[in-house]
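[[Sequence with tokens]]
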Amino acid sequence: MNEREEEIVICRCEEVTLGEIREWIDRGYQTFDELKRVLRVGMGPCQGRGCREMILRELSLKTGKPVSEIHPGTFRPPSKPVKLSLLAAGGDT
């Protein structure tokens, strides 16, 4: 691993780098939800749509488990941003 690789921003919403993710996995945080609690990954406006898969692949590499065996984390509604005016009006999307 080179220094430039460690500086790659994985979670753009919270500006979390690959190096930070690897550091916390090495500290024993081995689920998406644990990383979410300490790094706020998946908590920005995209709700993890931009970073979740990359983080799950990194967890897979570090733990030796297939991605299919790693829990993708807890989703809480709304998992996709919704305009408040739509909710207030009671309309459909």
Notes: Residues 18 and 29 are 14 Å apart (CA to CA). The two ends are 45 Å apart (CA to CA). The mean pLDDT is 89. The longest strand covers residues 9-11.
